[in-house]
């Protein structure tokens, strides 16, 4: 038997319904925030991610799905959404044509060759947003408010927002120098990857999964102590906007995030639900004021986040959030014989187009088994179509719960169902 690839999963049944509900909620929320829907390709030229996400990040060095296409081009399945959206922003010259700021949202599969475990997949879905063209802390605060409000709408409670700042380029250079100075005497005690990170990008040492509990990491310099005045002010403004929106957060000075493009604000939202496990970060993001330029666009500031759908779905499950999922059908139609199938089929289409969830017997069951099937489908009304009904256009309809039976003229059936089915 052929099995699914490691780190992937299938969606069906109850989970599928819950997922669709959450996806629709996201769509509605993005409409209210007035974000524009973007869809970019699942594979892009490998260069985009090397330069965008960063050559020294774990994502690029260890986790990308790279392949050569038949034209011998280096391609990569996108490991995240930001680089592709930035590419699209630049390639479609949105800096010239769009209303500023450009507020994009997206949803789709991402691919990382990671060690699969609970909450960590090789194919996973992200919902994310990117805002281009505003340096104002208002944009950072708005972006942080999106997942917070989504969780609020869903009724998720155990949510914690952690924020930090990496500052502007000048602050980052000061901080980089401080890190080099600090780690120099300890370099032999760090893992092989960190030795390389020390030379290429010392900030990435702080993101190391091997050495993360090493006290050397805990005592490392904090970004917050190397901020320029402008960076400090930006961070204070973000905090003050969050306060005014009533969003609770914690400043976590160890938060640096695993991607290279961040400047100023970085944030993560975690679920503190019992039993959730270590992969409890539901979403992460931040500001990236140099990325558009790094990818050959004009200097444009950006800020965004991405949320892992699988983790959100797990949080919903663990918190036992009751989603309004439809688990019953309105009508089940039983044609008594072959002769009534055509009439029944037309009725089915009519009911479906009028908004009723309708099923028909596809398996020529006898009446008893048809009623059993109607019960299995949690049917509200059973409609039996026999010779008499076809001739008279008077429909026999049975309330499947009370077992009460009604005779209704076909023309009045929709009105009857409208009155008797609470939507
Ligand atoms: P990220 O932190 O790499 O950021 O991923 C964002 C979220 O995607 C994570 O918090 C997690 O919920 C989910 N995620 C990541 N990897 C996996 C995995 N292997 N399995 C399941 N879920 C996963 C980004 O991707 C940035 N592009 C976010 C961003 C947008 N920053 C600015 N704009």
Mean pLDDT: 94
CATH level 3 topology of the largest domain: BirA Bifunctional Protein, domain 2
| Number of separate domains | 2
Helix content class:
25-40%
CATH superfamily of the largest domain: Bira Bifunctional Protein, Domain 2
Q: What ligands can be seen in this structure?
A: histidyl-adenosine monophosphate
Q: What is the rounded Rg?
A: 28 Å
Strand tally, please? 16
Output the number of helix runs: 16
CATH architecture of the largest domain: 2-Layer Sandwich
Briefly, what is this?
By secondary structure, this protein is α+β, with helices and mostly antiparallel strands.
Molecular structure report:
With 423 residues, this protein is α+β, with helices and mostly antiparallel strands. It has two domains: 13-168 and 248-318, BirA Bifunctional Protein, domain 2; 329-421, 3-Layer(aba) Sandwich (Rossmann fold). It is 38% helix and 22% strand. The protein has 16 helices and 16 strands. It has helices at residues 13-32, 46-53, 58-62, 82-91, 94-97, 137-154, 169-183, 192-200, 215-218, 229-244, 291-294, 309-318, 341-353, 367-376, 387-392, 413-420, and strands at residues 36-37, 43-45, 65-68, 74-77, 102-111, 123-132, 159-165, 250-251, 263-271, 281-287, 302-308, 329-335, 358-360, 379-385, 394-399, 405-409. The strands form three sheets. Strands 1-5-6-11-10-9-7-8 form an eight-stranded mixed sheet, sandwiched between helices. A five-stranded mixed sheet has the order 13-12-14-15-16, with helices on both faces. β15 and β16 form a beta hairpin. The longest helix is centred in the first third of the chain and has 20 residues, at 13-32. It is elongated, with a radius of gyration of 28 Å. Residues 80-82, 112, 114, 120-121, 124, 126, 128, 130, 258-259, 281-286, 304-306, 308, 310-311 line the site of histidyl-adenosine monophosphate (HAM). Histidyl-adenosine monophosphate binds at residues 80-82, 112, 114, 120-121, 124, 126, 128, 130, 258-259, 281-286, 304-306, 308, 310-311.
């Amino acid at each position: 038997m052929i099995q699914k690839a490691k780190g992937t999963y299938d969606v069906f049944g109850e989970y599928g319904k819950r997922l669709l509900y959450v996806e629709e909620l996201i769509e509605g929320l993005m409409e209210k925030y007035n974000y524009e829907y973007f869809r970019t390709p699942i594979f892009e030229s490998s260069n985009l991610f090397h330069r965008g996400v960063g050559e020294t990040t774990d994502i690029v060095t260890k986790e990308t799905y790279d392949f050569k296409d038949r034209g011998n081009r280096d391609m990569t399945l996108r490991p995240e959404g930001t680089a592709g959206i930035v590419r699209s922003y630049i390639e479609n010259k949105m800096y010239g044509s769009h209303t500023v700021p450009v507020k994009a949202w997206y949803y789709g599969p991402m691919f990382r060759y990671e060690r699969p475990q609970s909450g960590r997949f090789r194919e996973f879905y992200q919902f994310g947003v990117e805002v281009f063209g505003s340096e104002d802390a208002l944009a950072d605060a708005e972006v942080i408010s999106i997942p917070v409000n989504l969780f609020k709408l869903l009724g998720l409670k155990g949510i914690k927002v952690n924020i930090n700042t990496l500052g502007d380029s000048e602050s980052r250079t000061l901080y980089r120098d401080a890190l080099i100075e600090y780690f120099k005497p300890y370099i032999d005690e760090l893992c092989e990857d960190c030795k390389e990170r020390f030379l290429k990008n010392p900030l990435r040492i702080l993101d190391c999964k091997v050495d993360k509990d090493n006290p050397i990491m805990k005592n490392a310099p904090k970004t917050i102590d190397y901020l320029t005045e402008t960076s400090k002010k930006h961070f204070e403004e973000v905090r003050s906007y969050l306060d005014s929106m009533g969003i609770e957060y914690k400043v976590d000075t160890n938060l640096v995030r695993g991607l290279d493009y961040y400047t100023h604000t970085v944030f993560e939202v975690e679920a503190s639900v019992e039993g959730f496990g270590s992969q409890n970060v539901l979403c992460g993001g931040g500001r990236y004021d140099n990325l558009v330029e790094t990818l050959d666009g004009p200097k444009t500031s950006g800020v965004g986040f991405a949320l892992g759908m699988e983790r959100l779905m797990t949080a919903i499950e663990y918190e036992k959030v009751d989603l309004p999922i439809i688990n019953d059908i309105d009508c089940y139609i039983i044609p008594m014989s072959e002769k009534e199938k055509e009439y029944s089929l037309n009725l089915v289409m009519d009911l479906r187009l009028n908004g009723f969830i309708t099923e028909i017997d596809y398996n020529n069951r006898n009446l008893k088994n048809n009623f059993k099937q109607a019960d299995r489908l949690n049917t509200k009304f059973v409609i039996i179509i026999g010779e008499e009904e076809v001739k008279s256009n008077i429909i026999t309809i049975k309330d499947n719960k009370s077992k009460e039976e009604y005779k209704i003229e076909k023309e009045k059936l929709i009105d009857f169902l409208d009155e008797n089915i609470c939507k």
